[in-house]
What does this fold into?
Amino acid sequence: MLLRHTTAEVKERSALTINPAKTCQPIGAMYAALGVHNCLPHSHGSQGCCAYHRSALTKHYKEPVMAGSSSFTEGAAVFGGQANLLQAITNMFALYNPDVIAIHTTCLSETIGDDIVQIVAKAREEGKVPPGKYLIHANTPSYIGSHVTGFSNMVKGMVTYLSEATGRRRNQVNIIPGWVEPSDMRELRRLSRAMGINCNIFPDTSDVMDAPQTGRHEFYPRGGAPVAEIRHSGDSRSTLALGPTASEAAALALQEKCEVRSEVLELPIGLLATDRLINAMRHRSGIRVPGFITDERGRLVDMIADMHQYFYRKRVALFGDPDHLVSLAEFLVTLDMRPVYIVTGTPGKRFETRVREALGDSVPEAQIRQGAQADTFLLHQWIKREGVDLLIGNTYGKYIARDEDIPFVRFGFPIIDRVGHSYFPTVGYLGAMRLAERILGVFMDRQDRDAPEEAFELTM
Ligand code: SF4
It folds into this structure.
């Protein structure tokens, strides 16, 4: 009973978060930056922040994460970090030769009030940025937002600094994939190509955060969106932004800067959300949906029908990131399950409205909470008052699952006590099949565990 102090009685809190359902903004900024080819993320703050952000990503993706730090000490904390950042820029271009340095701020540098736009301009004026190289930045103080808003801010920074319109439209569609796994980004590319879309995906962490083992260390793995392609995003015909919280800001910035029409969709997790993505792609390419995509959908529908009896009316608690939760809730309803408790620590607009729209009128009793006090402590309290059949969330959910003896499916960020989540997509029809299979697996394991010997069945 590691969480034995959690009470069933819920008391409203206004100034205390217990076991947050989110993490630190710069982690998202760093993850987004790793989705640019030959990009070196840079943490403008103390070494401790940078070490934490790198290790958080490494623990989830099981890959090394390279990043620079402004290495603040007492002097920088008092006088500002400009001198450290200018020195860092010089050193990084000289030693590591990145195409881009993606600078994100931290709590400390934001509290001091370092003006990164001005420091970047100064670095350029002083010739610290070699020809053909770029600096981009995002403001990511972690006392506001979350890892998802940090991701969003950095992707918007890519547009602000890199995208440009030449006046010659390219027959391509930008896809801003949101915070999903590298395997999901690869799957989005596969689906786009199958649908006849010439896609320009950025950021793209496939072949960076899931790079194959070759026996040789690659400081810059072969993946990532090339800078030239991000620059060309301003000439694309349109943008599909997946997940409003993570991707809408960049899509709107591109629309404003380069007049690239954008459409924002929920993340394509589950049957209906994938249908909407395929439909949006179909409208853009003008081709019929290929038979093998229709077959993938058909297999998912068949699988749902086969599993339905085990899912029917199961109560589910979810926590994690807004874009994941909205689509996940919709998919659970498709499976005839009941997402009754949903919490996210990430702030932002319209979360509850989006979840209610995803649920339709099927789960009127659903409790939805967002913000600083929407933490896993509150979720646990709700579960104590009225239990659930399944918990879905990141690794930290294992404490609740253990204490309350609830089947648990790991989903979201971070997952630090398992391997494999970054290699298998959960977007698209194939991803939905995998998700449904994992959910069914924990129900069947529980049934086997609890069955008396005379009811211990060999077949489902
Ligand atoms: S919360 Fe702030 S101080 Fe802590 S690691 Fe994140 S950026 Fe650094």
Observations:
- The chain has a mean pLDDT of 97.
- The longest strand covers residues 338-344.
- The pocket of iron/sulfur cluster is lined by residues 24, 26, 45, 49, 52, 106-107, 142 (CB under 6 Å).
- Residues 26 and 150 are 6 Å apart (CA to CA).
